[in-house]
Fold this sequence. Notes:
Strand content: 25-35%
Largest sheet: 2 strands, antiparallel
Number of strands: 2
Radius of gyration: 13 Å
Mean pLDDT: 87
Amino acid sequence: MQTSALTNNMRADFERYDATRAEVMMDKHTNRPRGFGFVFFKDEGGLKDAIRDMHEKVSNKTGT
Length: 64
């Protein structure tokens, strides 16, 4: 999958939290995703809401 598509997908996941930027980190040798990225938020409220909601989402998938 292209870097821009991955970044757009990640941005879409966080846009309801007022994310201003999202970036998927890519391996410079293989041009494959490294498995993490960064999301920048407009304010701390959006950041806290994203952490809370995404933690619940991941916890429900893993059963923890």
